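call fold target=Large ribosomal RNA subunit accumulation protein YceD
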Amino acid sequence: MSNQDAKLGHIPDVFKFAYEQRRLSGEVKVAAFERLADLLTDQSGVIRYKLEGDVDAMRKPRLTLTIDGSLMLRCQRCLGGLGWDLSVRNALQPVRSGQEIPEEELEDDEVDAIEIDGDLDVLSLLEDEILLALPLAPRHDECGTLRPEGGAVKESPFSVLSGLRAKN
Ligand SMILES: [Zn+2]
């Protein structure tokens, strides 16, 4: 069985995938993530991902997910583009839907349990993990420094004063 057997964005039996220690990797266009669209100023480019199936010492299925790429987030202060390096490395423990998640796994901070019937939508998992990894309020250290022509635009003391007045 090779990686090509798994269709992009879809693993039919994630438990089998783990026990057979299979691997799935590839690239996904940033534009493919619909829920991400509103948070970005630019949807060009790709992210690279790798999903590795394995079993832990207790013979429990384990997935190691790695995602790398670069995203253009929207700065919450000036709404301009903010380049951000995406780097996710997460261990996941698939648990069949309806089955109780053992307490010791809930206490293990290193592993996130995911409830699943077997069929794994990789694209959706990647998007979930990317959304979790994003900073809550991305901001430039200093807004405006990337403005073209003439560099940073300094505010005149008068406009600062009128701004203060408007607040009162
Ligand atoms: Zn900004």
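return ok
Confidence is low (pLDDT under 50) at residues 1-7. The chain has one domain: 3-142.
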